[in-house]
Write a structure and sequence with these properties.
CATH topology of the largest domain: D-Maltodextrin-Binding Protein, domain 2
Strand content: 5-15%
Number of domains: 2
CATH class of the largest domain: Alpha Beta
CATH superfamily of the largest domain: Periplasmic binding protein-like II
CATH architecture of the largest domain: 3-Layer(aba) Sandwich
């Protein structure tokens, strides 16, 4: 197996830092009104291209290297139906470049993004076209896609994107360490997670951490607040659309659990010292892969990294543990994914829609993408296709995806700004810099609500 391309995973894992410029550009676009060049994007669906039509569909994505080749091959399957349509796939095009192309009235026909967090801005400011007229015309049954995944491609009732592939998050655990500690099953709730953490953790003679049962640091690796939140039933916005973390028992429980873990290890400084010795998230000596973490939250793609980089590691996967009072939610988890859309002003919207249908709804194409990229295919039919590569560790994530208990971040008119605020708070809280949890969360609410109040008109 060739090494997997790290760029996409790294970008997603560190989205809070890397997306700042892109989000700012999106918001600036909305303020300037420059996101709506003429041409394309009307209320009616463009007529399907004729079989003999000769044209080129341009696609922007951030895929590169090996993953670029996998996606290009899948995109080119459109030619089985439309042999005269050429697909021009331009990789290494991030969200900022997509936005700039729309503002400059020279967009691609199809835009692929790894970041669902920007969808609310794109929908609200008209950067992405409404796909509902095409869905209605072609009588597409969207129920073949799980509700949480359908929801993160819609903003305020407007479907301006389709889900292409999904990432699903769960628990990885070292089976050799579990056996040595006498643990016979993965934890199902946070009480069990804490008790297992105590059994699995090893300290050096000087009291420093040798092996951590489960690391509490946020943001670090896949320990992002948004990935933890579903396990505690925590949500960001109330019915009034405003942030409500301070009066949420779920957020209180989540941060208290984090503090409980930090205190068990002897404080923030000891955790930070241990963390500093862990490898990069996508290197072979990543903490879990190197045997420094007995348990870790991560996405389905970690399965492929382990098999490629440390094939001798004995591990298994399970759904993430949930708050004790949420036992009915066990088996679900957080999901996000790649989205695909028709930008405002696209020259060939009809052909663009045919391409989008190909890579989001055609089972054969989805299987090719899922097997090549090691992601979860987006339709329920593709989950059970015999051609899907699904070892027991990967199948856990397919089961989570099909559980009916998926949770995704709701599209927001401020992009990922609220996620950054919460993760910044989590970092200060675990460092002991926030003496009063409720007061600290009230400040988080104020920051997020200020951002919402300043959002551009129409956003």
């Amino acid at each position: 197996m060739h090494p997997l391309t790290h760029a996409r995973r790294t970008a997603r894992g560190h989205r809070l830092r890397l997306l700042a410029a892109a989000t700012a550009a999106l918001l600036a676009t909305a303020c300037s009104g420059a996101a709506a060049p003429s041409g394309g994007g009307g209320g009616a669906a463009a007529a399907p291209p004729g079989k003999a039509d000769t044209l080129t569909v341009t696609v922007y994505s951030k895929f590169n290297s090996r993953e670029y080749d996998v996606v290009t091959k899948a995109l080119n399957k459109l030619r089985d139906k439309y042999p005269n349509i050429e697909v021009k796939h331009e990789g290494n095009q991030d969200d900022d470049k997509i936005t700039q192309s729309i503002r400059g009235a020279n967009p691609p026909d199809v835009a692929i993004s790894f970041y669902t967090d920007n969808l609310g801005v794109w929908c609200a400011n008209g950067s992405f076209q409404d796909l509902q007229p095409y869905i209605d015309r072609d009588r597409i049954d969207l129920n073949q896609i799980p509700k949480a995944v359908r929801d993160y491609t819609v903003y305020q009732g407007k479907r301006c994107a389709m889900p292409m592939l999904a990432d699903v998050y769960g628990l990885y655990y070292n089976t050799d360490m579990f056996a040595k500690a006498g643990i016979t099953a993965p934890p199902r709730n946070t009480t069990e997670l804490f008790e297992d953490t105590k059994k699995l953790t090893q300290f050096n003679p000087d009291g420093s951490i040798k092996v951590a049962g489960f690391i509490p640091s946020m943001p670090f690796y896949a320990n992002q607040a948004q990935y933890w939140a579903p396990n505690f039933g925590a949500t960001y916005f109330g019915l009034d659309g405003k942030s409500h973390l301070a009066d949420s028992l779920a957020w209180q429980a989540m941060f208290q659990f984090q503090k409980q873990l930090v205190d068990f290890y002897g404080g923030h400084d000891k955790v930070e010292k241990f963390k500093s010795g862990l490898g990069d998230e996508y290197s072979a000596d990543q903490g879990f892969q190197a045997g420094k973490l007995a348990m870790a939250y991560d996405g389905e793609y970690r399965d492929a990294f382990i098999k490629d980089q440390v094939p001798t590691l004995k591990f298994a996967t399970a759904p993430a543990p949930v708050l004790d009072s949420l036992s009915a939610q066990y088996g679900g988890g957080f999901t996000t994914g790649t989205i695909i859309a028709i930008p405002k002003g696209a020259k060939n919207p009809a052909a663009a829609w045919e391409l989008i249908k190909q890579v989001t709804l055609d089972t054969g194409t989805l299987i090719d993408l899922a097997n090549g990229l090691k992601n979860v295919p987006s339709t329920t039919a593709s989950l059970t296709d015999p051609k899907l590569d699904a070892d027991p560790q990967f199948k856990t994530f397919l089961d989570i995806y099909a559980s009916g208990k998926l949770v995704a971040n709701p599209p927001s008119p401020i992009g990922d700004a609220h996620l950054k605020v919460v993760n910044d708070f989590a970092e200060r809280w675990q460092a002991g810099a926030v003496p009063d949890l409720t007061a600290g969360l009230k400040q988080v609410d104020a920051q997020i609500n200020d951002a919402l109040a300043q959002k551009p008109p129409g956003g």
